[in-house]
Amino acid sequence: MSIVTIDRDGDIAVVTVNNPPVNALSQALRQGLWDAAEALDVEQGIRAVVLICAGRTFIAGADVSEFGKPPMEPHLPDLVGRIETATKPWIAAIHGSALGGGFEVAMGCRFRVALDSASVGLPEVTLGIVPGASGTVRTPRLAGVEAAVELVTTGRPVKAPRAAQMGLVDAVVSGDLRAEAIAFARTALEKPLPPATSARPIAAPEPGFWEAQETAIARRAKGEVAPLRALASIRRATEVPFAEAMAFERATFLDLRGSDQAAALRHIFFAERAAPRPGHLADVAPLPLRTAAVIGGGTMGAGIAAALRDAGLPVTLIERDAEAVERGLANLRGIYAGAVKRGKLTEAQVEARMSGVTAGSDYSALADVDLVIEAVFEEIGVKRAVFEQLGRVCRPDAVLATNTSYLDPRAIAEGLRNPARFIGLHFFSPANVMKLLEIVPTPDTAPETLATGFALGRMLGKIPVQAGICEGFIGNRILKRYRAEAEAIVRQGTAIAAVDKAMRDYGFAMGPFEAQDLGGLDIAYLQREGARAAGQAVHETLGDILVRAGRKGQKTGGGWYDYLPGDRSPKPSDAVAALLAAHIQPGAALDSAAISARMVGAMADEGRKILDEGIAQRASDIDLVEVHGYGFPRWRGGPMFAA
Questions:
Q1: Dist CA 293 CA 505 (whole Å)
Q2: Contact 137/245 with Cβ under 8 angstroms?
Q3: Is 438 considered catalytic here?
Q4: 3-state secondary structure of 548
Q5: Collapsing DSSP states into helix, strand and coil, what is residue 104?
């Protein structure tokens, strides 16, 4: 069957694209659209052309199977230009998402009509490149410079109503998109046509606009190149004729396409696509997920409950007593209050979320739930007591999950009836925001239970990664090694602040010592103390020395750094220097590049051990854990890719 077909509604031709699953711009699709433009240009009786797509979306971008291969004609910029210069005006009828090259095709049309549920965007910077088929050149002509900068340099799509406000689409409709687009075309033909997008002028921005944008984008990008190159391309579009601006954009696109950053971002992109549906579970059906429960309403439990409600699952929240139940509900409401403040939810949406929550202290309320996630205090006795009760009251086929981050799930599930339905689901805080979900099966976990964990990850919009059982699983085990390497560098004579700066320069939002001060040094300290109490040989860390001196981080006014009241800016500490002096060997301080090389090298070395032990299944899984759970710069591709 042809992926591009033409039919007619009187004097309006309808060109339909059908290239499932996302109507990607393959060479065959580009050729099909080119041929349609050629044929319709000379067809008598046709006055306008509606471009519409079958399936669940408009053209959603490039064909990822062609990434890294030599481009084949017709090239996308030429196709967009061909549609724009057609003798009859084309109208893009957009549903689902018009992204990247798909939206560039839409911008080549004389008009754009979108369903109110549709979105449009130019996400190329998220792959380390810039739009290569007029995205930086046509967007400012349609929507103005400020809107173009927002759309192109962030890569974030916008919904159709906002796109209309920005000038990116001409009409937002509901109902039958084909009928609405044809009606729009007939109305448009009764008026003088607007100029082609390439012929529209661009209003110059205010003085100082470009410099301010460059500063803001550089701060946000933290070393990522593509957003700044995209800004430069938009600026060039305002300063030179269309053809010259197009040549500049194309040269920028081709230059970035072969860059290390683009390769790293492609690596993460493909890893993310593969993660939710691992090959070893391809033939395993997950169990149904219609209802869920969370045990524990603290920070983590409330975050998990919020994530479940955001996905539409009814939630039962269980706490130990009525007072704790109220605190748990308050924690959940606090999460949603923050979402309202940020404009992510309306008050009505919050009430709808909360109406789907049942809270109490009676475990019998869990008799018919499909999934229970335990998120109580990280102590083996407490967790075992929870699962003892769950084993008594829950259905034999209900999936029972622990959110432990360090404890051995096998020990938590000891004595549980039907252990095949038990699994570890390690969420990251805040659980309703962080995308990583480590899925930790035990030797007894059934394939269907494991598949259900991945199905939950997809339902919640998470990046699910399977991890084997060891101390810290994948992420926290590497974090421990990362922090140990940071301390080793300090012991050898490099300043604490220099280590943090090196990792910020590498692309992390915070250095290792700043991050510990924010989260609290006592958390890892208590874990080490617990291991020592259990008879394990755990060497003393520099962090132990600080905690014993009462320095637990920002919450005590000092950790690795000093903090003034009401000020979270870290200040080098004379007290820390005195406490650690006996443990630091005088030596030549490392420069920033040497520090980051050692730190990332240590992470990769631990990652190789994790792979060798079978704790992770793929190197790319380790990279996903570090990018989505620990702030590793996405554009570096993760420690395994970087190494």
A1: 42
A2: yes
A3: no
A4: helix
A5: helix
Nearest to 425 by CA among 316, 310, 292, 614: 292
Residue 540, pLDDT > 80, answer yes
Cα separation values, 88 from 76, 477, 536, Å: 20, 62, 78
Was domain 279-330+357-466 assigned CATH 3.40.1190.10?
Answer: no
Q: Residue 574 corresponds to which tokens in the numbers above? A: 């004379």
Q: What is the pLDDT of residues 296-340, one digit of tens each?
A: 999 999 999 999 999 999 999 999 999 999 999 999 999 999 999
Residue in 162, 158, 179, 184 with CA at minimum distance from that of residue 89: 184
Element (H, E) at 563: none
Is the Cβ–Cβ distance between 386 and 361 less than 8 Å?
A: no
Domain locations along the chain: 4-258, 279-330+357-466, 475-614
Element (H, E) at 590: none
Choosing from 66, 84, 104, 326, which is the catalytic residue? 104
CA-CA-CA-CA dihedral for 46, 47, 53, 59, to nearest 10: 120
Q: Which CATH number fits domain 4-258: 3.40.800.10, 3.90.870.10, 3.90.226.10, 2.40.160.20?
A: 3.90.226.10
CA distance 366 to 475: 31
DSSP letters spanning 405-463: SSS-HHHHTTT-SSGGGEEEEEE-SSTTT--EEEEE--TT--HHHHHHHHHHHHHHT-E
- pLDDT tens, position by position, 181-193: 999 999 999 999 9
**Neighbouring-strand partners of residue 121:** 99
**pTM, to two decimals:** 0.92
Fold match flag (4-258 vs 279-330+357-466): no
Least confident among 109-113, 244-248, 478-482, 584-588 = 584-588
Mean residue pLDDT of the chain comes to: 96
Quick one: pLDDT at residue 70? 81
Q: Which of 124, 319, 374, 626 is catalytic?
A: 124
Contacting residues for 57 by C-beta, under 8 A, at least 6 apart: 22, 23, 95, 96, 97
Paired residues of 158 in beta bridges? 120
For residue 77, give both structure tokens: 């910029």
DSSP string, 124-183: GGGGTS--SSSHHHHHHHHH-HHHHHHHHHH---EEHHHHHHHTS-SEEE-S-HHHHHHH
**36 pairs with which residues across the strands?**
none
67 has a pLDDT exceeding 80: no
- CA 236, CA 246: separation in Å to the nearest integer? 9
CATH class of the domain whose range is 475-614: mainly alpha
Alpha-carbon distance 395 to 398, whole Å? 5
CA angle 174, 179, 184 (to 5 degrees): 85
Amino acid identity at 461: G
Task: Using alpha carbons, list the distances in angstroms from residue 633 to 23, 266, 505, 509, 636.
Answer: 31, 13, 10, 8, 5
CB neighbour class for 372 (10 Å; exposed up to 12, middle 13-18, buried from 19): buried
The first and second tokens of residue 97, run together, are 């998402």
Helices then strands, counting H and E runs in the chain, come out as 26, 17
Strand order of the sheet with strand 97-99?
97-99, 119-121, 158-159
pLDDT > 70? residue 1: no
373 DSSP β-pair partners: 294, 401
Can 249 be counted among the known catalytic residues?
A: no
- Nearest partner of 497 among 512, 507, 475, 482, judged by Cα: 512
Q: Give yes or no for a contact between 419 and 413, defined as CB atoms under 8 angstroms apart.
A: yes
